[in-house]
Specification:
With 204 residues, this protein is an alpha/beta fold. The protein folds into two domains: 169 residues, 3-Layer(aba) Sandwich (Rossmann fold), CATH 3.40.50; 30 residues. Strands 3-4-5 form a three-stranded parallel beta sheet, with helices on both faces. Helix 2 links the parallel strand 1 and strand 2. Helix 1 crosses helix 6.
């Protein structure tokens, strides 16, 4: 993800820290690109500041990774994980979600946004929440968001669903192979192209 508040990194860090801080059997790796490439240390500073404001000592089982990965390295990161979690406040599509699902991972994401075109209760773990005004801090980070509203995932729900993935082997839902088959069938280039042609034809 790109490191900014729309992605909900603060929600993820809060929920993970409350639920798993100090647990040697669980580790969260946050893979992010700096919002400003000219300031690659910004995510580290912002996360430090956020944890201090919450009164949390940086958990030893929390890793922030901001270096660029080659494609095969990114594939390896997905393959080495047990699950993918992103409580985003809004997605136009949600490429990391579909990448993780195609990698066979259980996926936790918001019950809102463009990702619901391919995520549902049968193939993903959806987070409840509410529509709220964009915060002043987020609007200052990206002025385009000022005056808008977006989705705020419930931290409590996120904690519970992450815990369920850790303790219940089948909490991720459907067979990953079946999920991949459906995604590759319904969202391949040919299928999307046909949908686009049909839509454009309906406008003429």
């Amino acid at each position: 993800m790109r490191w900014h508040l729309r992605k909900g990194w603060d929600v993820l860090i809060d929920a993970f820290s409350r639920e798993f801080a100090g647990d040697p059997h669980v580790r969260l790796i946050v893979k992010a690109r700096p919002f400003d490439p000219a300031d690659p240390e910004a995510p580290q500073r912002q996360l430090d500041r956020h944890l201090r404001r919450q009164g949390i000592i940086w958990p030893r089982n929390l890793v922030l990774q901001t270096d660029e990965l080659k494609q095969q390295e990114l594939v390896g990161l997905y393959k080495g994980a047990d699950a993918f979690v992103l409580p985003s406040r809004g997605e136009g599509w949600g490429r990391p979600f579909i990448e993780a699902m195609l990698a066979g991972l259980p996926v936790i994401g918001p019950r809102w946004g463009g990702n619901l075109d391919f995520m549902n209760d049968d193939n993903a773990i959806l987070l409840d929440g509410s529509i709220v005004p964009v915060s002043e801090e987020a609007a200052a980070e990206w002025p385009y968001f000022a005056g808008h509203r977006w989705f705020e995932s419930s931290r409590r729900d996120l904690q519970a669903k992450m815990r369920a993935l850790v303790t219940e082997r089948n909490a991720g839902g459907a067979d990953p192979r079946q999920i991949c088959e459906v995604l590759l069938r319904d969202y391949c280039d040919r299928e999307i192209g046909q949908r686009a042609i049909a839509h454009l034809s309906s406008l003429s």
